[in-house]
Amino acid sequence: MQRLAPALRKDNVPLDLISLIKTILAATKEISFRVSQAHLSGLMGSTLDENIQGEVQKKLDVVANELFKDILLESGFVKAISSEEEDSSVAGDENGKYIVSFDPLDGSSNIDINSLIGTIFSIHQAPADMDASDPNMFKQAGNKQVCAGYVLYGPSTMLVMTTGSGTHFYVLDRTHGGYLQVERNVQVPQDTQEFAINMSNQRFWQQPMQNYINDLLAGDTGPRGKNFNMRWIAAMVGDIHRVLCRGGLFTYPADNKNPEKPYKLRLMYEANPMSFLLEQAGGLAMTSQGRIMDIEPTDIHQRVEVIMGSKNEVQACLAYYQ
Ligand code: F6P
Ligand code: MN
User: Fold this and answer.
1) Which residues lie at CB < 5 A from ion ligand 2?
2) What are phi and psi of 96, to 5 degrees?
3) N or C: which end of the chain has fewer CB within 10 A?
């Protein structure tokens, strides 16, 4: 098993990017510890605040955000950061070469039930000609990411990351405090009999998604001619991790539950990094209209429809929209 830095050097990752990744991982180790101690240190439950997206912040959301933000901004490697828990981007070092978008703790509803949560991050090059305080730096498509990953705080603390040379798995080895590579070039099976969707929204979906899911539910007596199983962890990190491990289709489709908010997941720190990881593992990551990573962002908190996972199943789903 290879340690992280030599594994990254083997993939020709620039040294300054390796340093930034190590900084990010230092933050995740601290978050991993805080998560494991949360109940003992009074960090369960919510704050009295909402974030800019109108979501109630959990105490651990805030702690994870502060930790991640401070460590990154002090590192000197980043020109700015943007986070699910910050209204706007936050300036770092004018000479920093990178910008980082992150969801400090994805799957917040799992915090209080001691279930799967994780940190998602996405790294772009910082435009040299823009001021560190200019949030427009973040308006870069997902196809320009130089690194994306997530850390799962599960039975083991696990890093899943790509720098554009495949998607690799690492596990935090607490005996020496570092991440070790446990799997290289993970491949998502092209076919699957498993899907992940919040079924309680069914009546709010557009007709093509209703038709597609109805056909999956019809199983071997329906047009698909095979039975499907459903899984829903309610944390995108957990659901995407399962898809990376054994295939599947994950979707958070458009819905008209709240006409002002047709999509749930955020492009910059949820959809884009997961798309990069899945595509690097041979999967597909789409909206019903096209490739997620080709979307030119207009806002750091913009939301997007997500249909991703095993290639053939994503294509089968998209066929319902044609
Ligand atoms: O960050 C948003 C998120 O928590 C995702 O991790 C997850 O996939 C989704 O929301 C769960 O949403 P729902 O409330 O529909 O289960
Ligand atoms: Mn999230």
Assistant:
1) 103, 106
2) -60, 140
3) C
pLDDT for position 172: 98
Reference 111, options 201, 28, 30, 37; nearest CA is: 37
Could you tell me the distance, in angstroms and rounded to a whole number, from the CA of residue 237 to the centre of ligand 1? 9
**Range list of β-strands (E), 184-223:** 194-196
Position 52 scores a pLDDT of 79
Residue 56 has pLDDT above 90, yes or no: no
Q: Is 109 annotated as a binding residue?
A: yes
Question: Where does 2-183 sit in CATH, by number?
Answer: 3.30.540.10
Q: Is the CB of 111 under 6 A from ligand 1?
A: no
Q: What is the mean pLDDT of residues 198-207?
A: 98
Most informative mutation of 58, 106, 151, 243 for ligand 1 (most atoms within 8 A of CB): 106
**236-286: pLDDT as tens digits:** 999 999 999 999 999 999 999 999 999 999 999 999 999 999 999 999 999
Q: Is 84 marked as binding a ligand? A: yes
Phi/psi class of residue 287: alpha, beta or left (left: φ > 0; alpha: ψ in -120 to 50)? Answer: beta
Q: How far apart are CA 322 and CA 259, in angstroms?
A: 23
Beta carbon of 235 within 6 Å of any ligand 1 atom: yes
**Domain 194-321 = CATH 2.70.98.10:** no
Which residue ranges make up each domain of the chain? Answer: 2-183, 194-321
Atom of ligand 1 nearest to the CA of 265: 2
* pTM reported for the whole predicted model: 0.97
pLDDT in tens, 161-182: 999 999 999 999 999 999 999 9
Alpha carbon of 128 to ligand 1 centroid (Å): 35
Which of ligand 1's atoms lies nearest the C-alpha of 108? 4
pLDDT at 222 over 90: yes
